[in-house]
Structures are given as C-alpha cells and as structure tokens.
Write a structure and sequence with these properties.
With 256 residues, the chain is of the alpha/beta class. It has a domain of 159 residues: Uracil-DNA glycosylase-like domain (Uracil-DNA Glycosylase, subunit E, 3-Layer(aba) Sandwich), CATH 3.40.470.10. The chain is 43% helix and 11% strand. The chain is built from 11 helices and 6 strands. The protein has a 6-stranded mixed sheet, with helices on both faces. β5 and β6 form a beta hairpin. α3 packs parallel to α7. The longest helix is centred in the last third of the chain and has 20 residues. Bound molecules: uracil. The site of uracil has 12 residues, from loops. Uracil (URA) binds next to loops.
C-alpha cells in the first residue's frame, strides 16, 4: 500500500512543500450580488428559458431553504431556473457524507460529470482524490463534494453570473444541511460565489475566510493544477492550513 510520502511524490509535491508558519485570520464575509432576477425574467419573457409557474426569486430561495435532502435532490433534478437545463444530460447535485466536516466546492460539472451525475470524476477529480488521499482522506468519508453549478455549461465555459445566482439557493441549502466544519473553495467561481469578491486566487489563498460562521480556505482548482505544476505545492499548503483549522476547531483552546 502506498505511504503518504509515496502519494506526495506521485503528486509532485514531496520535494517542494513546506509548512506555513502563520496564517492571517482576517475574515471578510460576503454574498454575491443578486443580479440574476432581471435577466431570468427577461429570458422567460422572450422564450429563451422555458415557461414555468412564476415563483419569485425570494419565494424560491425560501422554499429551497426549507428542503430536506430527498426533496432537495428532486428539486435540483427538475430545475429549469436557467438555460443550462436544456443542454445538460443530468444534474450533478453533489456526493459524499452528508454529515462531513470537510466540504469541497468546485465550479461546475464537465462532460464526464454530466454523463455520470457525480462531481469531479474526470482528470481533475483524480487529482482531487489523490490530494484527499495524501491527507489520509477519501471522498465520501467525512468529505462532501459539490459544485457551484449543478448543470454543465456547454463546452465547459465559465459559468454566467445569472446561472450562479439561479443555482445559489441549492448551494446555500447544501451547506446549511451539511454544516461542515470547513469549506474549501476550489478555484475562482467557488471563491467569488462564496465570498462575494472578484479577487484572485493568489490573493485569497493562504488565509482563513468565513462563509457565515464557517471557516473557508481558498485554493487553486484541480483542473488548473493539472496545467500548473508549481502551484500544486501551494495547494498542498492550503490543504494543510485547512487541516490545522479543522483540528483547532476541535480544541477548546483553539490551538492546533
Ligand atoms: N470541475 C469542477 O469544477 N467540477 C467538477 O465536477 C469537475 C470539474
């Protein structure tokens, strides 16, 4: 069986990673602006989006905010809140342990996720699984994995703001149900959505943020790491910061 060192070497991390000595505990919080409603209303009026019984944005958010897991899954599967419903093969709600301490948030399903209905099952997912293994963890065991969007954008393009806004109640409800001890935002879409900032990953990583009361660590998206070997070491530092934060949360004195 591979040791942790074997896995780190396999990831290309072993020669370069080092422990951070300190981290900044400033905690900006934020919610992405509600920009989607007029766009969605216009698209429905012009037939771009399928007609549906009019449910205003706030009523929908409140309704989704009260759903339990089964009803939430059914709602996601039937969702027509944005135009991605017309091009998806299936929705990709999320996978893992619903009582997990760790919640990983990616961007959106790609082709393989769209085909299988599970997040991070392609090449990027294999790297994510390897990084979890390096931490002694595995998907499904104290880990939950979701995306900001539950449907694949055509040709894997970057999600549009109104798509993110339409899907946002699902992500918020998943976080409220899981109550993770820590959230890891994988890449720009997740960081922007959860923190309400357009800042770069380079400027957000390496410190603790907050989503509501939950500590949140920002790191590079695994798909980006597949193309940028040097930043793998930084991502590994971020995961170690996340682990120290979870460990500290479990201690009454707050020290890791
Ligand atoms: N990239 C993501 O952000 N999510 C996936 O599920 C797959 C690739």
């Amino acid at each position: 069986m591979a040791t942790r060192d074997d896995i780190l070497i396999e990831l290309g991390l072993a020669p370069v990673w080092h422990r951070r000595r300190t981290f900044d505990a400033t905690m900006p919080a934020g919610i992405a602006p509600a920009t989607a409603a007029p766009v969605i209303a216009r698209e429905r009026a012009t037939g771009v989006l399928p007609a549906r019984s009019e449910e205003n944005v706030e009523a929908r958010r409140a309704r989704i905010g009260a759903l339990e897991w089964d009803a939430l899954a059914a709602d996601i599967a039937a969702c027509t809140a944005c135009a991605l419903c017309r091009t998806r093969s299936r929705t990709v709600p999320g996978v893992g342990d619903v009582a997990a301490d760790w919640l990983f948030v990616g961007e959106a399903p790609g082709a393989e996720e769209d085909a299988q209905g599970e997040p991070f099952v392609g090449q990027a997912g294999k790297l994510l699984d390897a990084m979890l293994a390096a931490l002694g963890m595995a998907r499904g065991a104290n880990v939950y994995i979701v995306n900001v969007l539950k449907c694949r954008p055509p040709a894997n393009r970057t999600p549009e703001p109104q798509e993110i806004e339409s899907c946002r109640p699902y992500l918020d409800r998943q976080i409220a149900l899981i109550k993770p001890k820590l959230i890891i935002a994988l890449g720009k879409s997740a960081a922007t959505t959860l923190l309400g900032t357009e800042s770069s990953i380079a400027s957000l990583r390496g410190r603790i943020h907050r989503y509501g009361g939950t500590p949140l660590v920002v790191t590079y998206h695994p798909a980006y790491l597949l193309r940028s070997l040097p930043d793998k070491a930084k991502a590994w530092e971020d995961l170690l910061l996340a682990r120290r934060t979870i460990q500290a949360a479990g201690r009454p004195d707050g020290l890791s």
